[in-house]
Amino acid sequence: MSTVASSARPVSGIGWRDVALAVAPLVLALIVAAVVLGSAGHNPLEVYWLLLQESFGGVKRIAATVAASTPLILTGLATAVAFRTGVFNVGVEGCVLVGGLAAAFVGFTYVDLPATLLLPLALGAAVVAGTLWMLVPAVLKARLDVDEVVTTLMLNFIAISLTAWLVNGPLLAPGSANSATPMVVEAARLPRLMPPSTLNAGFLIAMALLVLYWLWGRGTALGLETRLAGLNPRFAIASGINVPMLIVKMMLLSGALAVLPAASRRWARSTASSWASRRATVSPASRWRCWGAARLSASCWPRCCSVRWRRLARPSSSSAMCPSRSSTSCRAR
């Protein structure tokens, strides 16, 4: 009887209270958004109905919605893996950038390889790049207890600058008018599920990884160890768990998973608007690009909007490099 009861607890533990706790943030967000929309003079019901129509009003729109949500699922999964051990990995964006560029490099360099070899090779290059990118903050956190939020966040800016330099320099396509790499061959891209939509096999990869993550967290010894380390590190150490090594493993795994959003967009399309608004992105023309306006705003950011760097910049050069931002707004920031 005890065995049956213990095996039934996980299923019976998921009740209305758990569902309510999961749905409550969404409901609260809709209420807050409705208040904001109403104060701005818009009808919240009309806006929400339009949102539903554009997101789920047809097969093509549903496919576009699923394709757009796939990178968010994968980045959330990468963050959740590290978060189980109590580590806040906010460097997922940097892993996406370096991993995506590594995959793009393979995709336009080894063009003679068949798809059965080129696609796994590109994916492997991205995974290796993302894993190595998380190595330094993982070791710093495990050995010296350096705040991982600071290190991973700062690595994002390094990744932005590094990928921008590579695309504008060594990896720049010959004769290209824009900052872009050579074309990524079709064999290095994930197959589409519903052409001509952008939905591809990345969604299936995301769903499979979600199931594996659930099984790993509930049915493996490593999943139990990560949960104990995240809830109470001191108790985990007293229980014989090597928490520093566990932190390194989970951060490296988080970096490996963080590169998959680039794959979900076929190595050839931007995974989020933040890519274009920062420095580097992948264009619909199957090239890794750096947008000029984004590069300009990123280059003038430390001069216009940072108190520390503003003292080192000349006022005339700041206004010349950042024409879209007035001196008043820069001073206010």
Walk me through this protein's architecture:
This protein is mainly alpha-helical and 333 residues long. 70% of the residues lie in helices and 3% in strands. The protein has 18 helices and 3 strands. The protein has a 3-stranded antiparallel β-sheet. Helix 3 packs across helix 4 (59-83), helix 4 packs antiparallel against helix 12 (243-258) and helix 9 packs across helix 10 (221-231). The longest helix is centred in the N-terminal third of the chain and has 25 residues, at 59-83. The protein is globular. Residues 1-12 and 266-333 have low confidence and may be disordered.
Radius of gyration: 23 Å
What characterizes the major β-sheet?
Answer: 3 strands, antiparallel
Tertiary shape: globular
H/E series: HHHHHHHHEHHHHHHEEHHHH
Assembly state (oligomeric): single chain
- Terminus-to-terminus distance: 65 Å
> Which segments are poorly predicted (pLDDT under 50) over 5 or more consecutive residues?
1-12, 266-333
Overall pLDDT confidence: 77
Strand fraction: under 5%
Overall helicity: 55-70%
How many individual β-strands? Answer: 3
Major beta sheet, strand line-up: 1-3-2
Structure summarized in a few sentences:
The protein is mostly helical and 333 residues long. The protein contains 18 helices and three strands.
